[in-house]
Specification:
about 325 residues, two-stranded antiparallel sheet, about 25% helix
Length: about 325
């Protein structure tokens, strides 16, 4: 990310209440660390200038007075960890209602980051849809159970204060997730009446639809098949037998029924996540009374996140349909 692409200040949210380890700083330009201002007592994020970037607006601790304008991406922290942030992309022309949330994949590993989702967010903004490209803690970066899940929930919920700054309409929030991000997207869509052990508990911004791009939607089968070289066990801290309750919460297929529409998009030629992960989920979700469909596309695993391909066009079309009033 270049300095020119960064918002002239970092918007800093609340830390994870379970594992906050004291003051931290969000990443600034070229990986530099930027001092932050604690969140206000009213629960609205505070703002801090980013060194080396001139600001055309006055910086204040009261974010209600600081509007997010321009296309962005606006780099906004929702916690104190370096991986707890999102980038908001705004349309330059007429704006459609709703927000698209992008969750990148990479088998939940810190080797992969939100740069994978940036082109998708930019493309959606160019179509008139605000897009929130979400980063989160991953395995090897302080993530895993339950922190990765809490981050995704907190990142989506942080759209509430961000909406006040950017004029977002949260009546429809559609999450688009690729591969491991597809699992997190469908998991997040199940936010509702859940028990306190579930990191989704207490959600503030409901998800109204999901586009799963070759999502890993059955973590039990994925662990059995050793997808990603044991990535599922790294994520959840054990095998399905050892930590069965976690798989029951985290695995979309085991957590059915899901009341939110899920649109799976997958290629039969995918060599990273088998087509059966989507086909089996849609079959099980439909039998459970859910609204789930599967669109088969040409290309490979990464065609789904390559703007300009028929695979991405199919994903974008599904997202637009779900965002329609």
């Amino acid at each position: 990310m270049t300095a020119a692409a960064m918002l002239p200040f970092a918007v800093v949210g609340c830390a994870d209440p379970v594992d906050a380890a004291g003051p931290a700083t969000p990443p600034g330009p070229s990986g530099a660390l930027v001092p932050t201002v604690p969140a206000s007592s009213a629960g609205i994020a505070a703002v801090t200038p980013v060194a080396g970037i001139a600001s055309s607006r006055s910086v204040t601790r009261d974010t209600a007075e600081v509007a997010l304008t321009g296309p962005g991406p606006h780099h906004i922290a929702y916690g104190t960890d370096d991986s707890q942030w999102g980038e908001l992309y705004l349309p330059t022309g007429p704006r459609h209602p709703g927000v698209a949330v992008i969750i990148h994949g990479g088998f939940w590993s810190a080797e992969y980051g939100a740069d994978l989702g940036a082109p998708l967010a930019h493309d959606l903004a160019s179509r008139g849809y605000p897009a929130w490209n979400l980063e989160y803690r991953r395995v090897g970066d302080g993530g895993g159970w339950p922190h990765t899940f809490r981050d995704v929930a907190a990142g989506i919920d942080h759209l509430r204060p961000v909406a006040a700054l950017a004029g977002l309409d949260l009546g429809r929030v559609v999450v688009i997730g690729h591969s491991a991000g597809g699992q997190l997207a469908v998991w997040a869509a199940g936010r509702g009446a859940v028990n306190e052990a579930d990191p989704r508990a207490g959600s503030q911004v409901p998800v109204t639809g999901v586009v799963s791009q070759a999502g890993v939607l059955d973590l039990v089968a994925a662990a059995r098949d050793d997808l990603g070289g044991g990535a599922e066990q790294d994520l959840l801290g054990g095998s399905p037998d050892a930590v069965a309750a976690r798989y029951q919460i985290a695995s979309p297929q085991q957590a059915l029924p899901n009341r939110v529409p899920v649109r799976c998009v997958h290629s039969r030629s995918d060599s990273h996540v088998p087509y059966s992960q989507s086909a089996d989920y849609v079959g099980a979700a439909t039998r459970a009374g859910g609204d789930a469909t599967l669109t088969t596309v040409p290309g490979d695993h990464f065609s789904l996140i390559t703007v300009g391909t028929p695979a991405w066009s199919a994903c974008a079309a599904q997202a637009v349909a779900l965002l329609a009033p």
